């Protein structure tokens, strides 16, 4: 995994030899009882044992039950995937336990006002990561860092600086690099860099993370029809816990997941500036399909790119439509700042100035220097070159346009 190395959408299933060997050997030992268990009571007991705590708070268990049933019946996980899934869910449950413990010990956490939020809501692969990292360089801004996203609540014996949590994140990054170096060419993961806040919604088991990493159609369909309020309410509590640990003036949040739930974001976050990044859907959607393929192969060998395409092209179109429907009905005081991917790549500082101008703020010379330095530190292709071909997914541009017609028309109006 280095700059200059090319990773193609057709190479998603080329795992390291040790990875395939371990899966093969481990599978043969399932008869001896080595399969990792994905059952709710087993997972809860493991989290309780790991933390020494037992209060999950006002925990709605149905999302986790539906998710586990879908994983067990549909995802066809290989042994490593099964193990990763179990450890991840245990950690999410442990986060709830530790967070609830902090809320009881320090009631001032939830008494805080949530900071104003810049919320980047563009589709995947539209420059959202680059934009978030640039905005996070402003000392007044508070981004969710990767190590915080994994463990927003301090560990036992840890402190607000998160030294132990940072070590865990660094280990996770190293493991992912060994398992899938090509993934980093698509989406760079760094333990101390900003990360998507969809990972905070995971703590309530109401997020699109699972369908991006596994084939779980039943859970995905259930999720679209289910009230997301519990997830957003708990996310606000976690954000308050995080800002209590490391204060700033405003949040810079980012995840495409919010496109589907903009009214929920506004309702629960309050003072919000929506920053919508735009890119040709014929470029960003195939790129994301490649990313999903690389993600899913870490959990299952039975990844079919045509299935990935059919699920996520429709899903992306649905998310875009939900966002457009909300935008046509919004109140005048809600700020939407539109940022073109091409403009962002061409001159990032112009895009940043536009975002601040919409907040009636001006970038100081000092901040301009900070932003320029940050921009130079994150060049395109830092972890390799990502190439993707639509034909790898068994669809064509017409298929993508079928689900994104109204959005493409909207983009044309922005360019006029």
UniProtKB/TrEMBL annotation:
Q: Which stretches are annotated as coiled coil?
A: none
Q: Which GO molecular function, any one, fits this protein according to its record? A: transferase activity
InterPro entries with a match to the protein in the record: P-loop_NTPase, Stf3_sulfotransferase
Enumerate the SUPFAM superfamilies for this protein. Answer: P-loop containing nucleoside triphosphate hydrolases (SSF52540)
Q: Please give the superkingdom of this protein's source.
A: Bacteria
Q: What is this protein called?
A: Sulfotransferase
The alphabetized UniProt keywords are: Transferase
């Amino acid at each position: 995994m280095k700059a200059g190395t090319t990773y193609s959408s057709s190479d998603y299933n080329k795992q390291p030899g040790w990875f395939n060997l371990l899966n093969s050997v481990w599978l043969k030992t399932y008869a001896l009882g080595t399969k990792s268990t994905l059952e709710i009571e087993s997972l809860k007991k493991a989290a309780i044992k790991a933390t020494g705590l037992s209060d999950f708070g006002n925990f709605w268990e149905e999302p986790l039950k539906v998710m586990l049933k879908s994983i067990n019946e549909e995802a066809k996980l290989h042994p490593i995937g099964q193990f990763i899934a179990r450890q991840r869910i245990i950690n999410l449950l442990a986060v709830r336990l530790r967070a609830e413990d902090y809320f009881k010990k320090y009631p001032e956490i939830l008494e805080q006002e949530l900071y104003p939020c810049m919320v980047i809501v563009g589709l995947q692969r539209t420059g959202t990561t680059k934009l978030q990292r640039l905005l996070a360089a402003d000392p007044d801004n508070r981004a969710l860092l990767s190590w915080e996203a994994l463990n927003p609540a301090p560990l036992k014996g840890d402190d607000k600086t998160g030294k132990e949590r940072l070590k865990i994140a660094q280990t996770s990054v190293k493991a992912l690099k060994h398992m899938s170096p090509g993934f980093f060419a698509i989406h760079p993961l760094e333990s101390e860099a900003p990360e998507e806040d969809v990972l905070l919604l995971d703590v309530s088991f109401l997020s699109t993370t699972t369908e991006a990493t596994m084939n779980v159609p039943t859970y995905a369909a259930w999720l679209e029809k289910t009230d997301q309020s519990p997830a957003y309410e708990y996310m606000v509590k976690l954000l308050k816990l995080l800002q209590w640990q490391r204060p700033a003036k405003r949040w810079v949040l980012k995840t495409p997941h919010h496109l589907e739930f903009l009214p929920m974001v506004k309702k629960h976050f309050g003072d919000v500036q929506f920053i919508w990044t735009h890119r040709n859907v014929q470029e960003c959607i195939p790129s994301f399909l490649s990313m999903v393929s690389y993600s899913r192969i870490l959990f299952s060998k039975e990844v079919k790119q045509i299935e990935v395409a059919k699920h996520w092209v429709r899903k992306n179109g649905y998310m875009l439509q939900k966002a457009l429907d909300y935008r046509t009905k919004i109140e005048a005081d809600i700020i939407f700042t539109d940022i073109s991917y091409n403009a962002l790549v061409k001159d990032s500082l112009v895009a940043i100035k536009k975002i601040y101008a919409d907040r009636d703020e001006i970038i100081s010379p000092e901040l301009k220097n900070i932003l320029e330095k940050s921009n130079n530190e994150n060049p395109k292709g830092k972890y390799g070159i990502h190439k993707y071909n639509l034909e790898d997914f068994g669809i064509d541009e017409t298929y993508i346009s079928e689900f994104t017609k109204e959005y493409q028309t909207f983009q044309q109006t922005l360019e006029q």
